Amino acid sequence: QVQPVESGGGSVQTGGSLKLSCAVSGSSSGTKCMGWFRQAPGKEREGVAVISPGAGSKYYADSVKGRFTISRDIDRDIVYLQMYSLKPEDTAMYYCAAYRWSYCGGDYTLTRLGDYPYWGQGTQVTVSS
After folding, report:
1. Cβ(112)–Cβ(40) below 8 Å
2. What pLDDT score does 30 carry?
C-alpha cells in the first residue's frame, strides 16, 4: 500500500507561485512513478506532471509546460510541484498519485488515471485575477 499526502496549497494572485509537496509512504513507494493531477469544479480530473522513480524522466501537460516543474527527493520520498506564473485557470484541487508501475515512458502517463491506484486527499490551489 502506498499513501500520498499533499500539502502546500493556498491562494495567490495571478503571476504568483506556489510549491506543492507530496509525502509518500508505504512499501515500494520509492520505486513508483508519481504524478500530479488537478480537478477544477465541473471539470474532469487531468494530468499535470509525472516523474519517474529516479527523476530521470518527466512529463508535463501542455498547459503547464514552462511554468511548472516536478521533482522528487528520493531519500525523503517527497514529490514536489513548483508552480510559477500562475493563472486563474490553474485554480483547482491538486492531487498526488502513485502509478501502478515503476516504468513511465511517455506522455500517456498523464492521461491514464485508471493506472494510478493510490491517491492523496488533495490540496486546494486558488489563483485570483
Report:
1. no
2. 77
